[in-house]
Amino acid sequence: MGNSNLFTGIYAGLTNTYAQLAAQNPNGLTLEGISEARNDIQNNLTLNQSFASYLQTNFNNIDKDGDGIISSEDMTNLTNMMSAQGLTKAELTQLYASGASGLSTDTINNILEHFDDMDTNHDGRITQAEISAYTVNSARQEKVDEYAHKAATDMSVFYGSDSSSSDSGTYSMLSYRYKTSSNS
């Protein structure tokens, strides 16, 4: 899942799509304005339909003051809230389903599959910090499990390494015993 902020693509996509739509609607970005822009053939090459769909679907939640217009303040509040409080499973699923998550299929599937494990404070949202902590803990646990499996199955200390050869200068306990007894 990487060390970079996984939600950066989401924030940038929402902000850039809002800026493009707002520029086309100088009297304010309304639900009707988003719908018209999405249906305008000239916008097909430049408008990110996935993010526009998210803005359209969540219009009433984004328009906090209820004036029927998504303002730049509404967008700033949305991205700040997403950044500080994280995203719900439903929001992530919606962004992924609309193609607007900016994340690979494997990454988003991993996040959705382990959402409850990642949500360490059980607030129903995951933040970048929770995802990063889960990733680090998972990687650490993988190494612990790998070492435990190797320790339980690795007999190289007695029989030598599978990759070692007699010319390598490494000896197992048995080869050392036979080497010293043959040198006497």
Which key terms come to mind for this protein?
184 residues; two-stranded antiparallel sheet; elongated; mainly alpha
In short:
With 184 residues, the chain is mostly helical. It contains 11 helices and 2 strands, in the order αααααβαααβααα. It starts with 7 loop residues before the first helix and ends with a helix.
Structure overview:
There is one protein chain. Helix content is 62%, strand content 2%. It has eleven helices and two strands. It starts with 7 loop residues before the first helix and ends with a helix.
Order of helices and strands: HHHHHEHHHEHHH
Order the strands across the largest sheet as they lie in space: 1-2
How would the global form be characterised?
A: elongated
Give a quick account of the main beta sheet: strands, pairing sense, barrel closure: 2 strands, antiparallel
Q: Which regions have little confidence, pLDDT < 50, spanning 5+ residues?
A: none
